Amino acid sequence: MPREDKIMLFLIRLAAAIAVSVLLFIVGYIIIQGLPTLSLRFLLSSPTDMGRGGGILPGIIGTLTLTLVSILIATPLGVGTAIFLTEYTREGMFANLVRFGTESLAGIPSIIFGLFGFLFFVIRLNMGWSILSGALTLASMILPTIVRTSEEAIRTVPDAYREISFALGASRWQTVTAIVLPTAGPGIVTGIILGLGRAVGETAAVIFTAGSSLRIPRSVLDPVRTLPVHFYILAREGISLNNAYGTAAVLLIAILLINLSAYLVMHRISIRNGGG
Amino acid sequence: MPKIKAINFNFFYAKTQALHSLNLEIKLNNLLTIMGPTGSGKTTFLRALNRLNDRVPAARHAGQLLLDGTDVYAPKVDVAELRRRVGMVFALPLPLPLSIYENVAYGPRKKGINSRSRLDTIVEKALIDAAIFEEVKDRLNSSAQHLSGGQQQRLALARVLAVEPEVILLDEPTSGLDPLSTFRIEETLQQLKKQYTIILVTHDPLQAARINSDVAFLYLGKLIEVGPATEMFTRPRNRRTEDYITGKFG
């Protein structure tokens, strides 16, 4: 191998090694710091004394419900937009406008979403600090991810399938539901999971809209404190660094699991496509 | 009345004209072979007949294209219904990503037939008529992706037959197949032409000769010559036809 190639290979390997070690270091550090706090009791009990003692059960429930509701709102909107962009419009001004809009949405800092959610959902629509306000805010935040990945997944469906379907007298909608969506399904699910991962870890947009209540919510109109918000408050106000690390470890493990499942779903597509 | 009649039919993709004042007739339950080199407008003609060309941006037509005396481009025409009457087999033998059974049941289901027993009857008959039933009857529920190319193309034919069309369009259906698979498709067509009006598009003069039906020779979007294969292949009236069938170009 020429000398030049050897040097480049070394540098590229070094870059990859640094990238992986940063990830491993952060994950390892948080988990090692959080591990002593982690226990079944920590996961399944309510916090006491503002979070100095007890566990994070309300935070887990709050994070799960908030994320779930936001996915339930964002999925039909996002997948619907993707179907509209790919199947129902020809490339033109309007399609580009919609695409530009969703992409701009992806570039807005999350604190701005938080501020918007506070002013619009919490105050203007009078929903108060609640799961609903938070979920609507999160949904608008993860919408671009879902639109983008769904659109890409739908575009990989061979056009020949559509032609066959149309030639057999199927309508556009029949073609979408019977052929396009099932074929693009794993890609769309991957996008939803990635959106989910983003929603689970979001702090800024949530703290303004879902509140920071330590009680277990009874309805979607109740406020919640999600895990990232709990972590933020514990650490920032110096309440309990140990419990903050414990919370962070739980959150990190959850996000790793979510990303792993996204990877597995994607991996299944490549196996299926490769296997014919 | 002819089943299909083109009267001064022109077709354009944006500024490119693909068909020039085409005048052509196909009688009921007849097989017409359209022969011509790549770019002669054969596929455009088929895709105008079932209006699949509607999907192409900036495509437009002029003149008339009649099915049973009604212009397929008339405003009142229901395009989905038209496509059920005018079925199409594509050049690329591609099954839908479904089971063998569901591939054939696809068209009937989209028409609203959901009764399992009715679908069973339709699927079996279509597979028998497309001469593939014996080969697949024991694995109807397995994926159609694992069939051979020739089988996939006969499955595509069965898929069209299941919709009970009046006209079947075949766009170079054997271009990707081996000689034996080609022979089996051609043999099947000879059976089917008794009940269906068929248009077969091919770039292969030998296939047109084997099919031995009426042949239309299309060149650069113009109809050069039309007549029975026996006449065209023994006494071509036009010099370009003669050049094409003797392999001087194309």
Radius of gyration of chain A: 22 Å
N-to-C series of helices and strands of chain B: EEEHEEHEHHHHEHEHEEHH
Share of helix of chain A, binned: over 70%
By DSSP (H or I, 4+ residues per run), the number of helices of chain B equals 10
Share of residues in strands of chain A: under 5%
Largest interface: A-B, 19 and 25 residues
Number of domains of chain A: 1
For the report, how would you describe the main beta sheet of chain A?
2 strands, antiparallel
Beta content of chain B comes to: 25-35%
Using the alpha-carbon principal axes, give the shape of chain B.
globular
Average pLDDT level of chain A: 90
CATH architecture of the domain at 4-96 and 165-245 in chain B: 3-Layer(aba) Sandwich
* CATH uppermost class of chain A: Mainly Alpha
The CA-CA distance between the termini of chain B, in Å, is 34 Å
| Uncertain residue ranges of chain A | none
Question: Helical amount among residues of chain B, as a percent range?
Answer: 25-40%
- Number of DSSP E strands of chain A: 2
CATH names the topology of the domain at 4-96 and 165-245 in chain B as: Rossmann fold
Mean pLDDT level of chain B: 93
Can you describe this structure in just a few lines?
Chain A is mostly helical. Chain A has helices at residues 3-34, 40-44, 57-88, 93-107, 110-124, 131-155, 159-167, 172-201, 204-207, 227-236, 241-274, and strands at residues 47-48, 53-54.
